[in-house]
Each structure stands twice: as structure tokens, then as C-alpha cells.
Amino acid sequence: METKMNWGMGLFIGMSVFMLFIITLAVMIFRQDTDGYDHGYYEKGLDFNADYDREQQVFTDGAKPITKLVGPVMNIAFKGEVKGRVLFQRPSNEKMDKQLMFRSDPSGQVEIPLAQFARGRWQLIFEWSSNNKQYLYQQKIFKP
């Protein structure tokens, strides 16, 4: 005995599969534990303002550091005696990021050996203080 499926049964099966799909999506959405809201939004905004002020202080005081790659060493010339840190960020691999503390000599010179750094592009983020002022400066370099 051969049974044929009529259009009503096909419509019922199609609607059932669609409803099952919608219910599955709803369950998946409600099981997610993140709400997409950044709870630290206000604090990040305040940090951004502080960073912006420090970046502007560099230009106000004409305190932009001058970097020069000389062989396996990077020479940095600051406006005066400084103390701070430099963050080396590798855009292609964040596991290679390094942070170094530095203190200049009285003339504002700092030497950083680059032997431990891989060739390629690096993003440098300098943060330093001098004469009770805070500074922030970002620069890209290419280490040959």
C-alpha cells in the first residue's frame, strides 16, 4: 500500500522544523552570560581623557622624544632628565610585547638594546615623567 503525502502534511512538517529552529535560537540567546554592556565604560572614558591630556602635554612642552636606530641599539633623546617606561607592542603577535623601564642620563639620553626584539614593525608607547609632568607618546618603528 503506497501512501502519498499531501500538501497539508508537508506544510505542517515545514512549520514544525522552522519553529524548532526559532526555539533553538531563543534558547541559545538566553543562555549567553554576557549582555554586551561594557561595565567599565565610564572608567575607560576617564582613562582616555587622562591619556589625551598626557599626549597633548608632549606637544605643549615640545617634549617629543627623538628615536634613532643605531645597529642593535635604539637611542632616545628626551628634552631633559626623565624616568618612565616604554611598551614595545608587536601588531602581528601580542605574545611578543615587552615593557621596559628606563631612566635617562642628565642630558636626557636613553639607550635600549634591541637584540632581544624580532625584526619587523613595532608600536612604541612611551610613558614618562619630567619636572612633575606626565607625558605619553606613541610611535611606530621598523627594526631591520
Structure in words:
The structure is a single chain. By secondary structure, the protein is an alpha+beta fold. It has a domain at 65-143: Immunoglobulins (Immunoglobulin-like, Sandwich). Helix content is 32%, strand content 35%. The chain has 2 helices and 7 strands, in the order ααβββββββ. The chain has helices spanning 7-31, 41-61; strands at 66-70, 73-77, 83-89, 98-103, 109-113, 120-130, 133-143. The strands form 2 sheets. The protein has a 4-stranded antiparallel β-sheet. It has a 3-stranded antiparallel β-sheet with strand order 1-2-5, with no helix packed on it. Strand 1 and strand 2 (73-77) form a beta hairpin. The longest helix is centred in the first third of the chain and has 25 residues, at 7-31.
Secondary structure layout:
Elements: H1 7-31, H2 41-61, E1 66-70, E2 73-77, E3 83-89, E4 98-103, E5 109-113, E6 120-130, E7 133-143
Antiparallel strand pairs: 1-2, 2-5, 3-4, 3-6, 6-7
In DSSP terms (H or I, runs of 4 or more residues), the helix count works out at 2
**What spatial form do the alpha-carbon principal axes imply?**
elongated
Under CATH at level 1, the class of the domain at 65-143 stands as Mainly Beta
Secondary structure: helix percent: 25-40%
Structural class: alpha+beta
Name of the CATH superfamily of the domain at 65-143:
Immunoglobulins
The low-confidence runs, each spanning 5 or more residues with pLDDT under 50, are: none
Order of helices and strands: HHEEEEEEE
- Give the terminus-to-terminus CA distance: 81 Å
Strand order of the largest sheet: 4-3-6-7
User: How confident is the prediction overall: mean pLDDT?
Assistant: 90
> How big a fraction of the residues is strand?
25-35%
Biggest sheet record: 4 strands, antiparallel
Report the CATH topology name of the domain at 65-143: Immunoglobulin-like
